[in-house]
Amino acid sequence: MPRADRFLDIRRDPNSDELLARGGDSEAHSVLQRAGFVAVVRVHETYHRAPAGLAQDDEIRLATNAVSRLRAVGYHVDCDEDFETDSRPANYLPLGASVAHLAERIREATTTEEAADTLTELTAAHDGILAALDEVLTATATFHDELGGPSDQYIAQRLRHIADEHLRVIHGDLPYLRNKLADRHAPHPGRSTCTGEVPSTEQERSAVYACPPPPRTLPAPPPPIAAGLRR
Fold it and tell me: Which of 38, 116, 130, 178 falls 20 to 30 Å from 170 in CA-CA distance?
């Protein structure tokens, strides 16, 4: 039986006539956002709506696109008849998945060198992820400056403040930590570097795994019970 968070509804609200999407987990919410929906975060629920000001035909295309994308990755979607589709677009890993893979590499790192190499992808001065994020914030600030609306200049200033103040702190701390790891040259005490491969020269037929099992950690003995005072 599929989990409850694998089910979604994409329908027009009968009272407001708004196009709404409800249900799903965080992955489904990402699919909805990439299809064009806008997240609405409430205390007890997160749902999604169509962007304001869309024509009805554009809303139908948006909803149909979301239905096809969600079903293509295994979600169960109930929807209005207008949004039904047999299309199943190809699914490509988003850019965020590549960045998240760095966390997996750190979780599997067995030495400080391996962890430092992974953090270098974030901290590299010219083409690291932090440098690219700085460029994105700056470009978005310039975009808002050029929109010329009443609040656009404030938003541009806010974005530059984030880049100059908050991101700068990360720019300072994370490279420092990366360099400390690079200088340390130490194995991770709780992770084995064993590959699990049996040497070709092994004669024993019982040798199915090259590494010995990790040593068992005996529980600490209970603290001594203080003797009560005798009367």
Answer: 38
Q: Are 22 and 9 in contact (CB under 8 A)?
A: yes
CB of 106 within 8 A of CB of 188? no
pTM of the predicted model, to two decimals? 0.75
The Cα 202–Cα 159 span in angstroms is 62
For residue range 140-163, what is the model confidence (pLDDT) as tens digits? 999 999 999 989 999 999 999 999
Spatial neighbors of 160 by CB under 8 A, at least 6 apart, are: 137, 138, 141
Q: Are 116 and 174 in contact (CB under 8 A)?
A: no
Which burial class, exposed, middle or buried, applies to 82 when counting CB atoms under 10 A from its CB (0-12, 13-18, 19+)?
A: middle
Q: Which residues pair with 187 in a beta bridge?
A: 111
Task: State which amino acid sits at residue 157.
Answer: Q
* CA–CA separation, 107 and 61 (whole Å): 41
Instruction: Report the alpha-carbon distance of residue 65 to residue 48 in Å, rounded.
Output: 14
Structure tokens at 60: 């139908």
Closest CA to 31 of 80, 65, 82: 65
